[in-house]
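thoughts on my protein:
***
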Amino acid sequence: MTSVLIAALCFAPVAPIAAAQIDAADAASVTLSVPSRPLWVGELVELNVVLDLDVAFFETWSVPLVQRELDLQVLLGAPWFEGIEGLLVPLDGELGGSGPSLALGGSVVRADRSQDREVDGRLRRSVTVARHFRAEGAGAVDLTGPILRFAYATEFGESFLGGRQPLDHFEAFAQAQAATLAVRDLPEQGRPPSFIGVLGDLTVQAGASPRDLTLGEKLELRLTLGGADLGGFTSPPHLPSSAGLRASDGTLTRGATQVEVVYTIEPLREGALDLAVPQVSSFDPVAGVYRTVALDPIPIVVRAAPASGTALDLESGADEPASTAAGSGDDSDTVRNPGLLGGIAALALAIAAAGLWALRRRGARAMAPTEVQVRAQRTRERARAARGELDRALQLTEGHADRDESASAMVGSALIEFLARALDCSVAAVVGPDLDLRLRSAGVAAATSGRLAALVDELVAARFGGVARDEAAELARILVDEAF
């Protein structure tokens, strides 16, 4: 009985701390921000829900509305945040930022940004929850006004343990005005054949390597596209034909913000040739017009392959030296042709010279570097040129004694940029799935190429919550030494 009485005294509220006349209508408001112009099918759109909160009210009178740990005790409702089938598609994994947490539907999310300001002598907090969508179909997209719900009390009691307990409970809500998005199909008129389904300000870079090669070798043409929304880019652009060159179909690799397309080119003849670069067109959603990026051809030089050795051809029907016999056939009576010995000597000298020439040609061919050896040598030269910058970048990570995620990011960025320079490719190609094969084709031993590719994968994963080993920088130095 005594323990029950003590518990009751500890948690029973005593006299109220305060009672207030509260105008909850002014405590919070919500607005929906949408683009003012019509959208195009395939275009990305950012929709913002902005909460305007009275800081003093929520710090003093707010009580939980849902049984979740939240920075802001509010519940936001906006069903279209999950998308509207056939019309509006949310980007996967994009919702949520680094701002305060709040309840959105049945989930807890973090706002994208929060900012305090003073209005009429009171502190107001503007909290923005944003999400990007892709307009998938033409027509009108109706968005209901988001609803913001919250709870508060006007009177609180205090227990003997110092806790605060509401003595009443009220709920309130605020709703934004509804909005409608107008979405149009892309215009057919003026659409160029080079349009690749991309909307926005497209940038294109092109490069070929090697640009000085021997007939029989191959080169790679690399296109790097960025700047625009590349979600609609799904197949390599058409590569126009170039005189004296034969191209394979391009392969496409996606990076975080760029897309790289690689074509393999085979020269068919020697000489100075021009490698045509694809024209690429995008659609400017603001101006409502198609824009084309046209790059100049890339000059390359194709040299003749080393001539193969030729052997001396002795025809089986060649005339033989003649001899004349007289008398009864006795050796002592035989009269020999004076030119016979000279002919034999000349033939022997010719055969010896031909043999020596053939041996030298075979030695020269054996000493001539193969295509793989040439490519490996060029890779080593580029690696040596970039090594100093890599070492300086890795030394900077030694200042991060705790080996936190920023140190892992620094090691990863330094190693990836070094490999991009050594392999003469883009950063996006280094983080692609074929790095192991790319290293081996550049002359790196298979045992080392696999470990180096695995280290790059580990450092990239560390940027997104993975764990990188403490000795990543030292391991990077060791593997680079082994590879190059």
Observations:
- The two ends are 82 Å apart (CA to CA).
